[in-house]
Amino acid sequence: MKKHKQESNITEERPKLDRVISFKNYIAIGFGVIVGVGWVVYAGQWLQSGGVLGAILAFAIGGALLIPIGKCYAELTAALPLTGGELAFTYKAFGPLVSFLTAWALSMNYIAVTPFETIAIGAMVEAIFPTLSTNTLYEMGGYRIAWSTIIPGVLAGVWVIWLNWHGAKDSARFQTVVMVGLLACTALFCTLAFWKGDVSHLQPLFAGEGHWWAIAPASIASVLVVVPFFLAGFDCIPQAAEESGVKMEARQLGIAIVASIVIGVVFYILIILALGYSVPGSTLNTIVAQKNQLPMAEVFRSSFGYEWAAKLVLIAALLGLISTLNGIFMAATRLLFAQGRGGLLPHWFSKLHPVHHTPQNAILFVGAIAVLGPFFGKAGLTHIVNSNSLVFSMVLLITALATLRLRKIAPDLKRPYRIARYTIWLAIAVGIFLVGLMTIPGSPGQMGHAEFITVGLWMLMGLTFYYLRRRKKDMSDKIQANMILADYQ
Predict the structure, then answer these.
(1) Helix (H, G, I), strand (E, B) or coil at 95
(2) What is the dihedral of CA 61, 63, 69, 72, to 10 degrees?
């Protein structure tokens, strides 16, 4: 009797989030996480490794490879518009254990990124306003900690906590505003690049010496290996799928996922073209060789002599950091909330704010980690963040496999965004390729021992939590299915 009472107290009613996010907001969430800040740091290396055309083709091919996976996400998100995304997909396809392991792995991916972003925001503010830089307080792992790096990151973290605390509508609208600002800045400095640059700077089209047809494959491949991870972010849309506006059609969720990938590819190609158009390869090599952390901005400063243009690049990068922080924060809190609601993590994570109907405890948990980041620096997070490539690849593969399995075991499931079966097989092939790239010895993207150990320890910890929660027997299988799948059982 006591056990039954405990169960009824925990699962008396399925906690529901408000349906307030619009179609354009979803695109802003996906694209906002995709764009990030990596282009400011790594675009010069892409051109060095692949040449202008080689780098462009790498992103075009990488985007084309991700489209089948994005379409799998589109089909499942439109068919199962539930908080937690992959949690619901894999629960229906493979059951609670695979569902939990998938969601737990993805939780590491999202949670670890939030402090990384607040740390980077502090460094970016210093780069934009060097006069605000303060003396070093201490160092951790060779990373400098100062009030000028701590305060901006903490303020950004607190702001995102406040936005998400007060409702998905506010955080989604803010995401859209930030994206408009980033695109405006990008349009301005790209226009300057095409106006002041020269088409002759695009030569050589591929990196290396020899005939173009001989060096093109290696040039493209050298950039292609990193492309999927710069296009990650579309997977944040399913995490908040349950909060789609009441007038929004389920199919639009799928369209938003695919659109965010396409827009992300176009953005990166435009950045590569603008950078290649701006300076000769020799000048770019010199800038990159100086190990300038922000070569994209340095190009505009040294080549055109426009300090304001360099600042504009940095402001766009700052907006990219903020959009990534906000989008990842939304995804992380929704995923933890869904696991708590579904009895896979402590019920504490499923508590909603009585007024705003937001996952308040999940917000406090992720927010605390994000705000503490600037006090520790990125040294302690490096292995965790590097491990995210492997985790992300594994989740993409299991989602593609879930799409195929649900075609078999749930043929009558309504699929507003239905894709061709060969697309699913293509997605599985891409998923296997990406996982292999991370794990096969000698491959260009093989993870180090530290990354494998990090993932292993995280998953072992998750399995421990899972079995401890199962031993409580505080939620029946029937109620758990209702909590995770609602009307889509």
Answers:
(1) coil
(2) -120
At 291, is the pLDDT very low, low, confident or very high (cuts 50, 70, 90)? Answer: low
Q: Is-contact 27 252, C-beta < 8 A?
A: no
H-helix segments, 80-143: 86-94, 96-128
Distance CA 138, CA 67 (A): 45
| 3-state DSSP percent of the chain in helix, strand and coil, to 5 | 75, 0, 20
Q: Burial letters for 50-79: b for 16+ Cβ neighbours within 10 Å, e otherwise?
A: bbbbbbbbbbbbbbebbbbbbbbbbbbbbb
How far apart, in whole angstroms, are the C-alpha atoms of residue 188 and residue 65?
Answer: 30
Q: Which residue stretches of 342-476 are H helix?
A: 360-376, 382-409, 421-439, 449-472
- C-alpha span between 107 and 112 (Å, rounded): 8
φ, ψ at 363 (rounded to 5°): -65, -45
Q: Which pair of structure tokens corresponds to residue 212?
A: 């173009």
* Segment 112-140, tens digit of pLDDT: 899 989 999 998 999 899 999 999 999 88
Residue 21, strand partner residues: 244
Give the tens place of pLDDT for each residue, 382-425.
667 678 888 888 999 999 999 999 999 999 999 999 999 999 99
pLDDT at 431 over 60: yes
What are φ and ψ of residue 211, in 5° steps?
Answer: -65, 145
CATH T-level fold of 17-471:
Amino acid/polyamine transporter I (1.20.1740)
pLDDT at 444: 67
Containing 144, the helix (H) or strand (E) segment is strand 143-146
Residue 356, helix vs strand vs coil:
coil
Q: Which residues contact 55 (CB under 8 A, 6 or more apart)?
A: 46, 47, 49, 223, 272, 276
Question: Tell me, what amino acid is at 333?
Answer: T
pLDDT digits (tens, 9 = 90+) for 187-220: 999 999 999 888 888 888 888 777 777 788 888 9
